[in-house]
Design brief:
Largest sheet: 2 strands, antiparallel
Radius of gyration: 24 Å
Structural class: mainly alpha
Number of domains: 2
Strand content: under 5%
Distance between the termini: 67 Å
Order of helices and strands: HEHHHHHHHHEHEHEHHHHHHH
Length: 387
């Protein structure tokens, strides 16, 4: 039986497989996701053509289809129109059959036409990559066998074929909207699966991404690492990439006494950090109230998770639990209600900047006169944001 050009020990085949699949992961996160779908960075022709060729060779995915489906996911997240929400379709279906959901949505011409704008439309895309998108994986099969031999080549090829469908279409789209930790209370259910983003190219930091979708960098906290960002920085040093946008870093100055449009702009600019900080203060209030109301630790953890959600996004059975607790605690009810008033400052509104600045002033006055020390402390931070 043909043994291939390379004769490697067993660990050599394993290492080779990990390297090859990691290149595919890097191609997805850098080219398809951050460059094509979100325009967070510009890529030079060399890496762009390499990534396109590699994805054609190892996945058979069409750039326009992938970008369109992902953009629709952001636009319709956690609704019935979301192509792959585990909150709607269930975690098992998205985790194990996410690739089938992708294929189904790729056949929706309206999705591709509406969301697929701005993707490559050159000769290679029109004549090779799109019409013969499955031909590349056939070439990959033959190349693997010629280099590694029959059985090692087939096994490596099989792993390559299931790597992206499982990790990207299954794990990220499934677990990334179902289980993990959240740095930011964005409108959807996205989570950070793990703070070290290596295995899936940084895509593990999914809550960060949904909060700042146009950021080329997915890590946000000091303890988070995004290897995709590391690669982007290397490409930038080589002159093959240009970062267009990253998530804003919260900036604080001295406490302002005058609440004006400039302060409003600072608060709106840093709204995700504002809300994340507010939720921490709200949870501290909740902890104090749980002691007073003798709420057990398990129930307290469940209630704290609900406090970060809009009442309409909470399941009906849990809405009753949350409403019952808010009825018992005036302090917690006040803090919960003021959260909604705070978010209204950056919601779509017909109010002018001056009117919104007045609403911010009223909100800060209420916080400072609430008699709740956590609210008083938070109002000082709110007065300190700057741009």
């Amino acid at each position: 039986m043909y043994s291939g050009i390379l004769d490697l020990p067993w660990w050599g085949y394993v290492l080779t497989t990990l390297v090859l699949t990691h290149i595919s992961i890097a191609s997805v996160t850098i080219f398809l996701h951050r460059h094509q779908a979100h325009r967070a960075l510009d890529l030079g022709s060399v890496p762009s053509h390499f990534f396109r060729f590699w994805l054609w060779l190892t996945t058979g995915m069409v750039t326009k289809e992938w970008a369109a489906i992902h953009r629709k996911h952001h636009a319709k997240c956690e609704t019935a129109e979301d192509p792959h929400s585990p909150q709607v379709l269930g975690i098992k279906r998205v985790l194990w059959t996410g690739v089938l959901l992708y294929v189904k949505e790729s056949r929706n011409k309206e999705t591709i036409q509406h969301y697929g704008h701005g993707t490559p439309d050159d000769w290679m895309e029109r004549k090779i990559y799109t019409p013969f998108n499955k031909l590349g994986i056939v070439f990959a099969f033959l190349i693997n066998i010629s280099i590694f031999g029959v059985w090692p080549g087939i096994l490596i090829w099989v792993v390559q074929m299931i790597w992206i469908p499982f990790w990207a279409a299954g794990v990220i789209n499934g677990i990334g909207h179902f289980w993990g930790y959240r740095n930011f209370a964005c409108a959807d259910a996205s989570t950070n699966i793990f703070p070290i983003g290596i295995l899936i190219g940084g895509e593990e930091l999914h809550n960060n991404h949904h909060t700042f979708p146009s950021s080329a960098k997915l890590s946000n906290k000091w303890y988070e690492f995004d290897i995709g960002w590391f690669y982007i920085r290397l490409l930038e040093m080589m002159g093959w990439a240009r970062v267009k946008k990253v998530a804003p870093t919260p900036r604080l100055a001295g406490v302002r006494q005058i609440i004006d449009v400039a302060m409003l702009q600072a608060v709106v600019t840093h709204r995700y950090d504002v809300l994340a900080r507010y939720l921490k203060h709200m949870q501290h209030v909740a902890s104090e109230e749980f002691v007073h109301l003798r709420v057990d630790a398990r129930e307290g953890r469940a209630i704290k998770a609900l406090l970060g959600k809009e009442m309409g996004m909470v399941p009906v059975a849990q809405q009753k639990r949350l409403a019952a607790l808010l009825d018992k605690s005036d302090r917690l009810a006040r803090v919960y209600e003021m959260r909604k008033d705070l978010e209204a400052l950056w919601a779509r509104s017909m109010a002018s900047h001056e009117q919104l600045a007045k609403q911010l002033e009223n909100w800060i006055t209420r916080a400072e006169q609430s008699g709740i020390h956590q609210m008083e402390a938070f109002s000082l931070r709110l007065r300190s944001y700057t741009v």
